[in-house]
Amino acid sequence: MATYRLGVMYGDGIGPEVVQAAVEVLTTAAERLGTVKFNWVELPMGLSAIEKYGEAFPDITKKALKNCDGWILGPNDGAAYAKEHQGKRTPSGELRHSYDLYANIRPSKTLPGIRNVVGEADLVIVRENTEGFYTDKNMYVGNGEFMVTPETALSVGVFTKPAIERIAHAAFRFAMERRQHVTIVHKANVIKLGFGLFIKTCREVAEQYPQVKVDDYHVDAFAAQLVRRAGDFDVIVTENMFGDILSDLAAELVGGLGLAYSINASENQAMAQAVHGSAPDIAGKNVANPVGEMLSAVMLIDWLGTRHQDQSLHHLGQLVKTSILKALFDGVRTQDLGGDASTIQFTEAVVQRILRS
Ligand code: ATP
Ligand code: MG
User: Fold this and answer.
1) Phi, psi at residue 270, to the nearest 5°?
2) Domain-ending residue, one of 254, 270, 287
3) Beta partners for 263?
4) Three-state DSSP class for 50?
5) Ligand 1 pocket list (CB less than 6 A)
6) ipTM score here?
7) Same domain, 243 and 333
8) Which ligand lies nearest to the CA atom of residue 274 in the structure?
9) What confidence tens digit (pLDDT) does each residue in 210-258 have?
């Protein structure tokens, strides 16, 4: 039986609760199907790792990650790092950069029985994950920010052709497997050089995919169109910060941030990470919605299935996903979706549906 080593990093805030839930449903599905085995490798990461190892992303974690087939990551409390660990990247940022996980793929799809405000929609935001306006430790601009006088800050955006090319290819390849439509989101009317290069490069890459329909929007107009007619979009390719903002918007439009999922990927590594943050206001209360982290883990399993050409992984992912959707459809929901199930109760409901199917 094929065995996969999966690195698990719980992170901060609600991280331990939702990551535990994701691990539990995958383990249950693996036992139920008996075709795949997961070896879970728990790795210290986050504020709790600072207490124990003096660092949020300690060396033992960095080393161990190399021997894993995929990683499941909990959220980081960005505000705590900014306040108490000035100048340090969050582990999540560090992971994306050190391993060059350049594509953050964030689907938003309306779900049966879940209230949404846009009608039916099924779109994917492909967010460039290494440059744009989230720049730190860049070879040209260092941390990307400078105080040029005590009262003047410069925050630099970085746009490079190779980075735009690879994210554009990721978006177009994705579109080929979907509805063959890519929307480029930018702000080239104001940030003329950076987004000028972004759109020009995306258009050049588009020529290699003649079957794919291409359009482009300024980010402000796109935000409005997303609310008005989310159902018309398929794959959206955009810069780092725009992707971050638009994917929270898209997630809320189709049902809620607690449901939103993603992977960060390069050609040979992938990391599951829910779209939401560490939500310190509800941490440790057993009320967090684990669906975002669970579906992110499923996305990782699918990515592994494709990479290793292992159909049993796709089956397993499908089983977990269907069981999550069934639980939601049956009305088992956490508070953020208007229900009263706890994190543990929701997870148990998914486990039962995996076992019964
Ligand atoms: P970050 O900067 O890390 O992305 P953020 O400021 O975007 O963080 P989040 O932590 O994503 O904020 O959460 C915003 C609010 O949404 C939380 O305070 C919480 O109330 C709610 N929320 C987020 N995720 C969940 C979840 N999984 N279940 C329930 N509520 C959630
Ligand atoms: Mg956020």
Assistant:
1) -150, 150
2) 254
3) 105, 272
4) helix
5) 14, 18, 75, 78, 257-258, 276-279, 281-282, 288-289, 292, 336
6) 0.94
7) no
8) 1
9) 999 999 999 999 999 999 999 999 999 999 999 999 999 999 999 999 9
